[in-house]
Here is the input.
Amino acid sequence: MRPFPETEADTTPGYTGLRMLRRSGGLAIAAVCAAVVSSCGSSPPAPTTASQVIARVGSDTITLGQFNVRYQSAYTSIVQGGGGHRSAAAVTVLRARILGGLILDTVIRQEATKLGLEATPKEVAAEVAADAQQAGGTSALQTELAGAGGSIAQLQDEITANLNEQRVEDLFAQQRAALVEQILAKGANFATTAKTYSDDSGATGTASKGGDLGVLSAAQLKTYNPAFAAAVESLGVGAYTKAPVHDAGGYDIVMVYSKTTKAWGVRHILIYAGNPYNVSDRPDWFTAALFTAVDQLCAANDIEVTLTNAGGNPCTAPSPSPSVASPTPHPTATAKPPG
Here is the structure.
């Protein structure tokens, strides 16, 4: 299976309608606008029939209407960013990313449904209502979203996808944390295990240091999540929590390697499941799990794509770039919500 198209951009404007993964790991939301802003045009998308089925993932279908919501949002962000002359190749990349995101979100929703975790319309409506209240009313929210290249429909789409992913990722994180506990129970070295499994990574993370947070004073410990701090205070030297600590970052396995009356030497293994969940922090192991699911669907011929000029079926070899002279179809612009 080939990866979905990628971009080297690493910043994401709000409400772009782009929820995408890269197989090389890491970032889950693609910031394609920054990459193609100089080559995407400012002419509006041409009308087409929004009810058309453009892809199938197992027994579920993806419609052109769903595609349009994300495309229009991304397209608006590009225009607001000063997009110039349209390039057929850039449009194909944009369309392929949006379609790829819809396919992956469908895979996540199918898993959420199977696990009884799928976001309901009532829950999505409640989230939108909360956003509207914070913005000062529905009209104010619509204006705010439009200014960021979004819409109410796009917000509903994003909330649904985020809730589904957060819930599935949280359950997977619980299972991964339980696996780490089993590994430690068999006598594995804590620091070595942290280097392999901890999601506290990056330039300022602790994974590469064996999960070492250093020696924390009482004052420093108070700045941590109360559940985390309580776990540290309860442990003796050399002991670790036999059940993961659920805190704002996810599931922590905490170990104390030194202790005085005023300070604790602490290591931890974080299995990320942030609350609130941030898709841009999606851990590599969850990305890998999603692509494994896609691979299985591909092997069963359960992914079909009929949308043209969108990179083709992700299960097949890359399609050649379209000729600049070839006509580039565009979806219908999402209608402005009533103000």
